[in-house]
Design a protein that fits this description.
It is built from seven helices and nine strands. The protein is α+β, with helices and mostly antiparallel strands and about 325 residues long. GO terms for molecular function: metalloendopeptidase activity.
Protein backbone atom coordinates (compact mmCIF):
# COMPACT_ATOMS: atom_id res chain seq x y z
CA UNK A 1 0.00 0.00 0.00
CA UNK A 2 3.03 2.26 0.47
CA UNK A 3 3.58 2.03 -3.29
CA UNK A 4 0.27 3.78 -4.00
CA UNK A 5 0.58 6.53 -1.41
CA UNK A 6 -0.79 5.02 1.82
CA UNK A 7 1.69 5.17 4.69
CA UNK A 8 -0.25 3.28 7.33
CA UNK A 9 -0.16 -0.07 9.09
CA UNK A 10 -3.45 -1.99 9.25
CA UNK A 11 -2.10 -5.40 10.19
CA UNK A 12 -0.06 -5.15 13.39
CA UNK A 13 -2.81 -4.36 15.89
CA UNK A 14 -6.58 -4.21 16.37
CA UNK A 15 -6.38 -0.46 16.97
CA UNK A 16 -4.68 0.10 13.63
CA UNK A 17 -6.99 -2.26 11.78
CA UNK A 18 -9.93 -0.16 13.04
CA UNK A 19 -8.84 2.51 10.56
CA UNK A 20 -10.52 0.44 7.86
CA UNK A 21 -13.90 0.87 9.51
CA UNK A 22 -13.51 4.64 9.75
CA UNK A 23 -12.04 5.51 6.37
CA UNK A 24 -14.05 4.27 3.37
CA UNK A 25 -11.32 5.13 0.88
CA UNK A 26 -8.77 3.19 2.92
CA UNK A 27 -11.21 0.28 3.29
CA UNK A 28 -11.58 -0.05 -0.48
CA UNK A 29 -7.85 0.19 -1.14
CA UNK A 30 -7.10 -2.26 1.69
CA UNK A 31 -9.58 -4.74 0.23
CA UNK A 32 -7.93 -4.46 -3.17
CA UNK A 33 -4.52 -5.02 -1.57
CA UNK A 34 -5.84 -8.06 0.29
CA UNK A 35 -7.12 -9.60 -2.94
CA UNK A 36 -3.69 -9.09 -4.50
CA UNK A 37 -1.84 -10.40 -1.44
CA UNK A 38 -3.90 -13.61 -1.19
CA UNK A 39 -3.96 -14.14 -4.96
CA UNK A 40 -7.76 -14.04 -4.95
CA UNK A 41 -9.37 -13.88 -8.35
CA UNK A 42 -11.60 -10.79 -8.19
CA UNK A 43 -13.18 -11.69 -11.51
CA UNK A 44 -15.01 -14.56 -9.81
CA UNK A 45 -17.31 -11.92 -8.31
CA UNK A 46 -18.57 -11.00 -11.78
CA UNK A 47 -21.36 -12.20 -14.05
CA UNK A 48 -23.90 -12.56 -11.24
CA UNK A 49 -21.75 -14.55 -8.80
CA UNK A 50 -22.01 -13.10 -5.27
CA UNK A 51 -20.66 -15.95 -3.13
CA UNK A 52 -18.17 -14.69 -0.53
CA UNK A 53 -17.47 -18.01 1.23
CA UNK A 54 -14.21 -18.51 -0.68
CA UNK A 55 -12.96 -15.15 0.57
CA UNK A 56 -14.28 -15.65 4.11
CA UNK A 57 -12.21 -18.82 4.46
CA UNK A 58 -9.11 -16.81 3.62
CA UNK A 59 -9.86 -14.14 6.23
CA UNK A 60 -10.51 -16.22 9.34
CA UNK A 61 -12.08 -19.26 10.94
CA UNK A 62 -15.79 -19.95 10.92
CA UNK A 63 -17.48 -18.74 14.11
CA UNK A 64 -21.09 -18.64 15.30
CA UNK A 65 -22.76 -15.50 16.62
CA UNK A 66 -24.46 -16.59 19.86
CA UNK A 67 -27.11 -13.88 19.58
CA UNK A 68 -28.24 -14.64 16.02
CA UNK A 69 -27.16 -18.25 15.59
CA UNK A 70 -25.56 -17.29 12.29
CA UNK A 71 -21.97 -17.89 11.33
CA UNK A 72 -19.67 -15.00 10.56
CA UNK A 73 -19.55 -16.36 7.00
CA UNK A 74 -23.34 -15.97 6.70
CA UNK A 75 -23.25 -12.45 8.14
CA UNK A 76 -20.54 -11.43 5.69
CA UNK A 77 -22.54 -12.92 2.83
CA UNK A 78 -25.67 -10.99 3.84
CA UNK A 79 -23.70 -7.75 4.11
CA UNK A 80 -22.18 -8.27 0.67
CA UNK A 81 -25.46 -9.32 -0.97
CA UNK A 82 -27.64 -6.58 0.55
CA UNK A 83 -25.26 -3.62 0.74
CA UNK A 84 -21.77 -3.94 -0.70
CA UNK A 85 -22.79 -5.54 -4.01
CA UNK A 86 -25.45 -2.84 -4.46
CA UNK A 87 -23.09 0.04 -3.68
CA UNK A 88 -20.44 -1.30 -6.06
CA UNK A 89 -23.01 -2.33 -8.71
CA UNK A 90 -21.70 -5.90 -8.85
CA UNK A 91 -24.65 -6.96 -11.01
CA UNK A 92 -23.28 -4.69 -13.73
CA UNK A 93 -19.79 -6.26 -13.63
CA UNK A 94 -19.21 -8.45 -16.66
CA UNK A 95 -16.00 -10.35 -17.37
CA UNK A 96 -15.19 -12.06 -20.64
CA UNK A 97 -18.82 -11.69 -21.74
CA UNK A 98 -19.71 -10.29 -25.12
CA UNK A 99 -22.61 -7.86 -24.91
CA UNK A 100 -24.86 -6.67 -27.68
CA UNK A 101 -24.06 -3.19 -29.00
CA UNK A 102 -25.85 -0.47 -27.08
CA UNK A 103 -28.85 0.93 -28.86
CA UNK A 104 -30.51 4.30 -28.58
CA UNK A 105 -33.56 3.91 -26.32
CA UNK A 106 -36.83 4.00 -28.18
CA UNK A 107 -40.23 4.89 -26.89
CA UNK A 108 -41.73 1.65 -25.72
CA UNK A 109 -44.89 0.20 -24.33
CA UNK A 110 -45.52 -0.78 -20.73
CA UNK A 111 -42.72 -2.46 -18.74
CA UNK A 112 -43.48 -3.97 -15.32
CA UNK A 113 -41.83 -2.18 -12.38
CA UNK A 114 -39.96 -5.36 -11.35
CA UNK A 115 -39.11 -8.62 -13.05
CA UNK A 116 -41.62 -11.45 -12.59
CA UNK A 117 -43.98 -9.38 -10.39
CA UNK A 118 -45.64 -11.29 -7.56
CA UNK A 119 -47.51 -10.43 -4.39
CA UNK A 120 -45.41 -10.40 -1.20
CA UNK A 121 -46.45 -13.44 0.84
CA UNK A 122 -44.89 -12.67 4.23
CA UNK A 123 -45.36 -9.54 6.31
CA UNK A 124 -42.75 -7.35 7.93
CA UNK A 125 -42.76 -9.52 11.08
CA UNK A 126 -42.74 -12.82 9.18
CA UNK A 127 -46.44 -13.70 9.22
CA UNK A 128 -47.87 -15.41 6.13
CA UNK A 129 -50.49 -12.91 4.95
CA UNK A 130 -50.54 -12.04 1.21
CA UNK A 131 -53.62 -9.83 1.70
CA UNK A 132 -51.43 -7.42 3.66
CA UNK A 133 -49.64 -6.52 0.41
CA UNK A 134 -52.78 -5.77 -1.62
CA UNK A 135 -54.25 -2.34 -2.42
CA UNK A 136 -56.81 -0.84 -0.05
CA UNK A 137 -56.51 -3.44 2.70
CA UNK A 138 -56.75 -1.90 6.20
CA UNK A 139 -53.51 -2.11 8.17
CA UNK A 140 -53.17 -2.55 11.97
CA UNK A 141 -52.74 1.23 12.25
CA UNK A 142 -56.23 1.54 10.66
CA UNK A 143 -54.80 3.19 7.54
CA UNK A 144 -55.51 1.76 4.11
CA UNK A 145 -52.65 0.32 2.08
CA UNK A 146 -52.16 2.81 -0.75
CA UNK A 147 -50.36 0.59 -3.25
CA UNK A 148 -49.25 -2.98 -3.83
CA UNK A 149 -46.17 -4.65 -2.37
CA UNK A 150 -44.33 -6.57 -5.10
CA UNK A 151 -41.82 -9.05 -3.70
CA UNK A 152 -38.19 -8.56 -4.69
CA UNK A 153 -34.99 -9.33 -2.85
CA UNK A 154 -32.84 -6.36 -1.94
CA UNK A 155 -30.85 -5.00 -4.85
CA UNK A 156 -33.24 -6.11 -7.60
CA UNK A 157 -33.75 -3.93 -10.67
CA UNK A 158 -36.62 -1.44 -10.57
CA UNK A 159 -37.89 -0.16 -13.93
CA UNK A 160 -39.72 2.81 -15.40
CA UNK A 161 -43.05 1.42 -16.62
CA UNK A 162 -43.50 4.04 -19.34
CA UNK A 163 -41.61 6.91 -20.93
CA UNK A 164 -41.95 9.83 -18.58
CA UNK A 165 -40.35 12.47 -16.40
CA UNK A 166 -38.80 11.99 -12.96
CA UNK A 167 -41.02 14.42 -11.08
CA UNK A 168 -39.40 14.01 -7.68
CA UNK A 169 -36.80 12.06 -5.73
CA UNK A 170 -37.23 12.05 -1.95
CA UNK A 171 -35.92 10.25 1.11
CA UNK A 172 -38.28 9.65 4.01
CA UNK A 173 -36.50 7.49 6.62
CA UNK A 174 -39.73 6.96 8.58
CA UNK A 175 -41.95 5.23 6.06
CA UNK A 176 -41.44 5.49 2.33
CA UNK A 177 -37.65 5.46 2.33
CA UNK A 178 -35.96 6.46 -0.90
CA UNK A 179 -38.75 7.28 -3.35
CA UNK A 180 -39.14 8.09 -7.04
CA UNK A 181 -42.24 9.69 -8.58
CA UNK A 182 -42.61 9.48 -12.36
CA UNK A 183 -45.05 11.69 -14.25
CA UNK A 184 -46.48 10.40 -17.53
CA UNK A 185 -47.95 13.00 -19.88
CA UNK A 186 -47.01 11.96 -23.42
CA UNK A 187 -50.21 11.17 -25.35
CA UNK A 188 -48.84 7.95 -26.83
CA UNK A 189 -47.64 6.75 -23.42
CA UNK A 190 -50.97 7.62 -21.82
CA UNK A 191 -52.64 5.60 -24.55
CA UNK A 192 -50.39 2.62 -23.73
CA UNK A 193 -51.40 3.03 -20.10
CA UNK A 194 -55.11 2.99 -20.93
CA UNK A 195 -54.72 -0.05 -23.18
CA UNK A 196 -52.91 -1.87 -20.40
CA UNK A 197 -55.93 -1.81 -18.06
CA UNK A 198 -57.50 -5.25 -17.67
CA UNK A 199 -60.63 -6.58 -16.04
CA UNK A 200 -59.74 -7.42 -12.48
CA UNK A 201 -61.73 -8.61 -9.50
CA UNK A 202 -60.17 -8.11 -6.07
CA UNK A 203 -58.62 -11.30 -4.74
CA UNK A 204 -58.31 -10.61 -1.01
CA UNK A 205 -60.69 -9.57 1.75
CA UNK A 206 -60.61 -5.81 2.08
CA UNK A 207 -58.89 -5.24 -1.26
CA UNK A 208 -60.27 -2.22 -3.13
CA UNK A 209 -60.54 -1.42 -6.84
CA UNK A 210 -59.65 2.24 -6.56
CA UNK A 211 -60.01 5.28 -4.36
CA UNK A 212 -62.43 8.16 -4.73
CA UNK A 213 -61.61 10.52 -7.58
CA UNK A 214 -59.16 8.33 -9.51
CA UNK A 215 -59.48 9.17 -13.21
CA UNK A 216 -58.30 6.37 -15.50
CA UNK A 217 -58.76 8.74 -18.46
CA UNK A 218 -56.62 11.51 -17.00
CA UNK A 219 -54.09 13.13 -19.32
CA UNK A 220 -51.39 12.62 -16.71
CA UNK A 221 -50.55 9.67 -14.48
CA UNK A 222 -48.09 9.33 -11.61
CA UNK A 223 -46.14 6.14 -10.88
CA UNK A 224 -44.64 5.96 -7.40
CA UNK A 225 -41.82 3.69 -6.15
CA UNK A 226 -40.99 3.28 -2.41
CA UNK A 227 -38.25 1.64 -0.29
CA UNK A 228 -35.43 1.80 -2.85
CA UNK A 229 -31.90 0.95 -1.76
CA UNK A 230 -30.28 3.03 -4.49
CA UNK A 231 -31.51 5.56 -7.05
CA UNK A 232 -29.83 5.66 -10.46
CA UNK A 233 -31.64 8.60 -12.06
CA UNK A 234 -32.00 12.33 -11.56
CA UNK A 235 -34.86 14.65 -12.42
CA UNK A 236 -35.47 14.46 -16.15
CA UNK A 237 -36.59 12.04 -18.83
CA UNK A 238 -36.63 8.26 -18.51
CA UNK A 239 -37.82 5.58 -20.90
CA UNK A 240 -39.92 2.43 -20.48
CA UNK A 241 -37.75 -0.44 -19.29
CA UNK A 242 -34.96 1.79 -17.98
CA UNK A 243 -33.51 0.67 -14.64
CA UNK A 244 -34.18 3.66 -12.40
CA UNK A 245 -32.99 2.16 -9.13
CA UNK A 246 -32.54 -0.93 -7.00
CA UNK A 247 -35.10 -2.31 -4.59
CA UNK A 248 -34.49 -2.34 -0.87
CA UNK A 249 -36.07 -1.85 2.53
CA UNK A 250 -35.22 1.78 3.20
CA UNK A 251 -37.67 3.58 5.44
CA UNK A 252 -38.85 0.43 7.21
CA UNK A 253 -37.65 1.22 10.71
CA UNK A 254 -37.82 -2.28 12.18
CA UNK A 255 -36.65 -4.10 9.06
CA UNK A 256 -38.72 -6.70 7.24
CA UNK A 257 -38.98 -10.40 6.48
CA UNK A 258 -40.71 -9.58 3.19
CA UNK A 259 -38.65 -7.12 1.10
CA UNK A 260 -40.68 -5.51 -1.65
CA UNK A 261 -41.26 -2.60 -3.96
CA UNK A 262 -44.25 -0.60 -2.80
CA UNK A 263 -45.79 0.61 -6.07
CA UNK A 264 -48.59 3.14 -6.54
CA UNK A 265 -50.59 4.54 -9.46
CA UNK A 266 -52.19 7.98 -9.00
CA UNK A 267 -54.05 10.43 -11.19
CA UNK A 268 -52.73 13.33 -9.05
CA UNK A 269 -49.36 13.61 -7.41
CA UNK A 270 -50.50 14.72 -3.97
CA UNK A 271 -53.45 12.90 -2.43
CA UNK A 272 -54.35 11.37 0.92
CA UNK A 273 -55.69 7.97 1.96
CA UNK A 274 -56.89 6.13 -1.17
CA UNK A 275 -58.08 9.30 -2.89
CA UNK A 276 -57.13 9.46 -6.60
CA UNK A 277 -55.24 6.19 -6.32
CA UNK A 278 -55.93 3.01 -8.28
CA UNK A 279 -55.29 -0.64 -7.54
CA UNK A 280 -52.07 -1.35 -9.51
CA UNK A 281 -53.36 -4.88 -10.20
CA UNK A 282 -55.32 -3.44 -13.13
CA UNK A 283 -52.02 -2.64 -14.84
CA UNK A 284 -49.38 -4.88 -13.23
CA UNK A 285 -50.44 -8.47 -13.82
CA UNK A 286 -48.66 -9.77 -10.76
CA UNK A 287 -48.88 -13.35 -9.55
CA UNK A 288 -51.01 -14.37 -6.60
CA UNK A 289 -50.43 -18.07 -7.27
CA UNK A 290 -46.78 -18.98 -7.49
CA UNK A 291 -44.70 -21.97 -8.44
CA UNK A 292 -43.11 -23.98 -5.60
CA UNK A 293 -39.75 -22.44 -6.53
CA UNK A 294 -41.10 -18.88 -6.35
CA UNK A 295 -42.79 -19.49 -3.02
CA UNK A 296 -39.65 -21.14 -1.65
CA UNK A 297 -37.58 -18.09 -2.59
CA UNK A 298 -39.88 -15.83 -0.58
CA UNK A 299 -39.91 -18.29 2.31
CA UNK A 300 -36.11 -18.52 2.40
CA UNK A 301 -35.87 -14.74 2.55
CA UNK A 302 -38.48 -14.63 5.32
CA UNK A 303 -36.40 -17.05 7.40
CA UNK A 304 -33.46 -14.64 7.32
CA UNK A 305 -35.50 -12.37 9.57
CA UNK A 306 -36.22 -8.66 9.75
CA UNK A 307 -33.14 -7.34 7.99
CA UNK A 308 -32.72 -3.59 8.27
CA UNK A 309 -31.63 -1.04 5.70
CA UNK A 310 -33.00 2.12 7.25
CA UNK A 311 -31.55 4.74 4.94
CA UNK A 312 -31.08 2.61 1.85
CA UNK A 313 -27.44 3.40 1.08
CA UNK A 314 -25.59 1.21 3.57
Amino acid sequence: MHDIGYSCDITSSIEKSDQVGKNFELAVVASMAFFKWKNLDMYKLCNGNKSTERISKKVGMREINKDTGKSNYEEKQEAFTNRTSVAFMVDDCKWNVKESPKQTPKQGKWHDPVDNPQITLWTQSGKYNPANAAFGVPRPNKKYHQGVDLFCTEGSNVYACLDGIVESITDSPKGQGQTIVLKITDKEQINYFRQRRRDYNPTYDGEKKQGEGFDENSNHIYLVYYHLSYILVKKGSVYAGQVIGYSGISGIRDGTCGPHLHFEIRSERRCGDLTKRCNPAYYVYYKVKMSPEEKKKQEERMKKGQLKDFYGRK
